Amino acid sequence: MAHLNLGVLCSGRGSNLEAILRSCEEGRITGRVALVVSDVADAYALERARNHGVPAVHIPPGKFRAKLEPEIEDQYVRALKDRKVDLVCLAGYMRIIGPPLLEAFPQRILNIHPALLPAFPGLHGQKQALDYGAKVTGCTVHFVDPGVDTGPIIAQAAVPVHEDDDEDSLSARILEQEHRIYSEAIQLFAAGRLRIEGRRVRVLPPP
Length: 207
Ligand code: GRF
Fold this sequence. Notes:
Blueprint: E1 4-10, H1 15-25, E2 31-38, H2 44-51, E3 56-58, H3 70-82, E4 87-90, H4 99-104, E5 109-113, H5 125-132, E6 136-143, E7 153-160, H6 167-190, E8 194-197, E9 200-203
Parallel strand pairs: 1-2, 1-4, 2-3, 4-5
Antiparallel strand pairs: 5-6, 6-7, 8-9
This protein binds 5-O-phosphono-beta-D-ribofuranosylamine.
């Protein structure tokens, strides 16, 4: 099986990155993290990457709040291509992906979202579920398209909402499942077992 080179984009604490790094080290993902890029200079994710001996760079995002400047997004593409990245994983990366990355990595960008899409897209998926009164929520790994959390779904896990949950307790319970299903989805990609058919992602049986 081909060895996958992953590029991970992070804006914050990087617990999903940590789970991916460990999955690579422990053989649950047949690949390695080749580069971590952050739009935030002091993101803890950068430190986590370096602790695992993985190159990590901060590339300042430019003047927009919700996306990168296109010229800067080109720099992200160059950095990822220089490290021969095959698959880009968004892991707590807080900006919308624009044409430069989407065109450089067609159907090769994944995201993890802390809700059962299409419910509660965008920011604060866990709080949205609580405020709405949902009894079950969860997390979703999906391919990235130009929308916000709208791409074809690869994997989901359901998580119950408890009577006494607050945003922190619910987020923690969802996060355990995020760490599990993100690595599983990446490994399905690495094994060539994902076929996008319109909105649906077919998971092929193991060879
Ligand atoms: C996770 O809840 C993820 O689903 C969301 O942002 C959070 C990132 O957490 N997109 P971490 O940086 O991976 O710890």
